[in-house]
Design brief:
The chain is α+β, with helices and mostly antiparallel strands. The chain contains 8 helices and 8 strands. Strand 7 and strand 8 (233-238) form a beta hairpin.
Length: 280
């Protein structure tokens, strides 16, 4: 019986070590503050649906400390909502946010009044969640590091995120009769980089020629920060593993640890018993 218990416990823990049981982030509460240092944002004239807006696009610095310590970069997943910091946020994985059906999910975000306005929808509206998740992952894996090299690239990367969320493939900054998001201004470095990112998303070819060869990919862990009073934000950290075990996964870990503990206690008792008989 003891050997079976030990075997079961090791099997459960082994599944976690081998990645057989997914360890994705689950909801946790935090407070976000404006981070230290300058954000990599710039304003551009964009058209969402048929509505022209001047939008601040690019990576922002935020912190979970009021003093700005340990600031980190985030990009916006919610272009039609204002950022209000400091603010209470809840975290979850990108996959959970994109494919979820609760009141804070990607689909629910695009069902808010700002997105269902006749001047925005149906041209700029939510897209198939599998496509959104795949394209966001592809964009980050190839171009995230590149996006932090200049403000123009950062703004272009932000535009590509918004394009993925509310525009259909093929992606482009150029206005058409059916396009949901366009750049409503002349040529610029920002637009050049945005078109390059979008062309790569459409073709799958991340060799951008003179703008850089981004064919190498990097795995990231994605953390979505969402709030009822502020825009949804996305942070990534290097590494493709999950951040925090799901509650059900934690339960399995706990069961395994209890089983191992019980097995050790049985082993200790048997050893002690043998020792008593030997000394007697």
């Amino acid at each position: 019986m003891m050997m079976k218990t030990i075997h079961l416990a090791k099997l459960v823990l082994g599944c976690f070590a081998a990645g057989a049981i997914s360890l994705s982030a689950y909801a946790q509460s935090t407070t976000l503050y404006v981070g230290s240092g300058s954000s990599m944002t710039e304003s551009h004239n964009l058209t969402f649906g048929s509505t022209n807006k001047t939008s601040s696009a690019g990576a922002q610095t935020v912190s979970e400390s009021s003093g700005g310590a340990n600031s980190f970069w985030v990009y916006c997943l919610d272009p039609l909502t204002s950022r209000n910091l400091p603010g209470a946020y809840t975290t979850e994985s990108l996959a959970s946010w994109v494919t979820g059906a609760d009141s804070t999910s990607y689909t629910s975000t695009f069902n808010k009044a700002a997105y269902t306005d006749p001047g925005i929808s149906p041209l700029y509206n939510n897209r198939p969640t599998a496509t959104v998740l795949a394209k966001l992952t592809e964009l980050y894996s190839h171009a995230y590091a590149d996006s932090l090299l200049s403000i123009a690239k950062s703004a272009a990367f932000q535009y590509a995120i918004w394009e993925i969320e509310g525009e259909g493939d093929p992606y482009s900054t150029t206005a058409t009769a059916s396009s949901g998001l366009d750049v409503n201004e002349g040529g610029s470095t920002f637009r050049t980089h945005a078109d390059a990112y979008l062309a790569a998303l459409t073709s799958g070819n991340w060799n951008l020629g003179g703008l850089g060869n981004l064919t190498a990919s990097t795995a990231y862990t994605f953390t979505v920060f969402h709030s009822p009073t502020s825009q949804v934000l996305l942070r990534v950290t290097p590494g493709g593993g999950g951040q925090v075990p799901e509650p059900s996964s934690l339960l399995l870990i706990g069961m395994a640890m209890v089983a191992l503990g019980a097995a050790r206690r049985v082993a200790i008792k048997k050893t002690a018993t043998r020792h008593v008989f030997q000394t007697a």
